[in-house]
Amino acid sequence: MKDLHPSSLLAGLNDTDLEEETPVSNDFSTALGALILSLVFLLGVPGNLFIIWSILARTRQRSVTTILILNLACADGFLMALTIFFIIYLAKQTWIFGPVMCKGLFYLCNSNMYASIFLITLMSVHRLVAVVLPQRVSSMASRKIVRRVIFGMWVLVMVISLPSLVFRDLSTRVDDMNNTFMVCMPNHTQPRRVRFQYALETVAGFILPYAVIITSYVLILRRLRQTKFRRKVRSEKLILAIVVMFGIFWLPYHVINMIQVAAEWYPEHSLKKEMLDRISQSSRAVTSALAFISSCANPILYTFAGKSYIKRNGFAFMAKLFESTLDQIGNKKSRLMGKDNVLIRNVDSSSTPVSTGQNGK
Predict the structure, then answer these.
(1) Mean pLDDT across the chain, nearest whole number?
(2) How far apart are the C-alpha atoms of 140 and 330, rounded to whole Å?
(3) Given a cut of 90, is residue 269 above it in pLDDT?
(4) pTM for the full predicted model
(5) 6-329 in CATH: which number?
(6) Backbone angles phi, psi at 324, to 5 degrees
(7) Which residues form the G-protein coupled receptors family 1 profile domain (predicted)?
(8) What stretch of H or E contains 151?
């Protein structure tokens, strides 16, 4: 996955420019990148570990939304733990971990992107089912089915991330002072590989999932307007906030992806290609930084969402927040339907003696 790795925080380089400059060849940029990643590490690792602990140790009732949030925290927390390798890479300005780690670490970075958006998509689809088909939530959201869906999602993530594993290599570079250093960079020898990888990232990792998410929430809002149950529940607000947060961080990255794909359709050294490459190179660093920071943003979001629980519950506030995301819409609608059924049965039972009495007369 090009330029999502921490070295991309330093410079948005095209693959053809490696001989002139590498992401670890600028002292100021490497220092800035190391600083950003250190802050991400300090916020992301403890934050996501706290979410995992809150769900596993303190949450007594786990909704489907909570299980999906647990998987999201595991993915983000694991990615944040890997930043220590990238900080060392920037500090030494050379890759010291070998070719296997070069491919493997960036493959895991790419996997995190897909896992995050797929998990958020599953949250949105589940909320749609809870609103539109509340009577089926219990049967469709059983633990066995949820585990199978999540397992299938992780398998898909591992498969769809393979291009980032294939199109990345470790190579040797020599600077102006004849110092030799190693760089771990994408290796796209043909334009079609660039188009394939980045188009796949944007279509499968952003456009299609967000189309499902937007469709789900349009149907949810339409359904709520048709019913008397219009009260906004906490789980709806929380999931919608996660969706918006992810979009804010990732949209700029995917826009640059598409600019780079468009550049590869033009002939080499053409004015349009040079212009698009220049835009991509100048913007890649900022958009990649935003994308990478997104993995440590959710714990902060959950803290703001659960601030009303902090005084009452202390460190257990996040567990209380997740317990409050139980399928409220489905449960409340089910209770209303249950009350209606009881009322119908009572009316039927009360009308039976009357009918019998009339016949007796």
Answers:
(1) 75
(2) 12
(3) no
(4) 0.76
(5) 1.20.1070.10
(6) -75, -10
(7) 47-302
(8) helix 143-160
